[in-house]
Specification:
This protein is an alpha/beta fold. The chain has 25 helices and 16 strands. Belongs to the PEP-utilizing enzyme family.
Amino acid sequence: MNDGAESAAFSGLFRQADLGLRREMDGAAASPGVGIGPAYVVDRRRVHVLHTHIDRDRVEAEIERLHEALRACRQQIEVVKSRLPHGEHRQILKAQQMILRDPDLIQRTETLIREELANAEWALTTVTDQILEVLGNADDNYFRERGSDLTYLIENVLQALLGEHGDEIDPPAGSVVVAQDLSPADTARMHRCQVAGLVTGVGGKTSHSAIMARSLQIPAVVGVDDVLAAVDAGDLIVVDAVRGRIIVRPTPEEVAHFQAERERHLAFEQKIRKEHAFPAVSLDGLHVRVRANIAISEELDLALRHGAEGVGLYRSEYMFMNRDTLPSEEEHYRMAKHVLRRCAPYTVVFRTFDLGADKPTKLLELEDERNPAMGMRSLRLALRERDMFLAQLRGFLRAGVHGPLAIMLPLVGGVDELGAGLDAIEEARDQLATAGVAHADDIDIGVMIETPAAALTAEHFARRVDFLSIGTNDLIQYTLAIDRENEAVSYLYQPMHPAILRLIKEVAEAGARNHVPVSLCGEMAADPRYTWVLLGLGVAELSMHPSAIPVIKHIIRSSKTDDMKELAERVLKVDSASEADELVLATMRARFPEHLRHGCSEGEGGP
């Protein structure tokens, strides 16, 4: 927005601020940056649906009415998609269209219409509520946040069934859009509106709207409780998507402060984005391969656009979610083939399905466990469900002829379990050879180091595999005996705990002795506070969510190996996690203040 437009947008708003009290509200920073502007409030109410019965001879007509509404909504999305440039946002809208073709959703709705003689609106609402309940109870944030996407899509279908038309949002340039939630289509429309920021009452960092906000580089804060009750149309709002908060009706001094911070933030963004394609090579020549963690294909373009040197963790378990049948060997093959061709010439590391615990699936009968994080999950489950495991492995091996593919086994507890996993890979290879099916013979195979047992015996793993990858999310959980999904003990989740640092060092040294690369793919990799410590401990590769890559690569290019090793050595000598945090934060904040403002979790590492 130019200076004249900005002045006009702010004109008179301070008089309005005098009429209401300043209010500061917390949320989650979903898309980094600072936005300032008048509020454009989107307050939608859920469509009211009546439960009526239809005559039996009206069943087929009612089903056709359902399909017509679904087609109309898919076409609406197609219109929005056609207005956008190519990129990740188009892929997300395509995913929305696929949800509206989901056979499980459609078949279950048709069944209710046929068996209960329910009208299409009630049948669709009933099925949707059942799906939303499952998503809402999931431990994984990714699945909980899919609920908001589904809710908006179904609202549009219901409006089509009822002959209503949802208002298309059309915010003025320079405004801040405030809503209880926004659909990806809503967010995509802002591409042409040049809004200053987004604020929602629900959602999280992995919701599709958050992903699209990052893709479109719109500062966004989500999960702000009761935001619609606190904001009136036209209220001046500061969207502080660095710290994860908003300020409603700020003071003139605050506006001036955040205008300066926004300009500094934008200048830094432009600088590091210009360099995103450069390799992460330190000032003294250390090349660190920086890869992306992805779970769905929509994230692939974003990863490459942010400078990822391939994929260090492809979470294949998401293929098993929200469906009634197991993915076939052919589906695994086609998915992996697409990803490999898109990433060539870089390597893609496919983790075999990490199901169980916080990633449940209705495709398997899993007993309720008192402690599922330590129960039947990951490789243990794959070895039990051998046919399902072999189908995935055969698909991966077949896809390996299309690009450099690696297979990674999750949560390997010991050498015996590793041997069983390697035997399964060999069995899948023999099955393809016997059938005369083309497949890759020479692929890298690695393991995730996620338990203290695996870290302490990494030497034994390093003699048998091609790479090791440290999964710090689970390693911290298991080492410190805390449930990372339990908010009551979240304060004990300490990446800088001396035990964690020593285990990372142990694994890195085991890899170095055996000439096996060691990567780290947990959330620690994406946090700029920890870059020096991890590399100083000997980690050779980092894999992270795509939006973190430019900041981490820029830190590496601005650093020297000796400085990183020195910090790691100092941290290893302290007695507690709090001491280590203070030391690391002070060092990194002094050297990389803007990087920490861009890359830390909200409230952590900021000024």
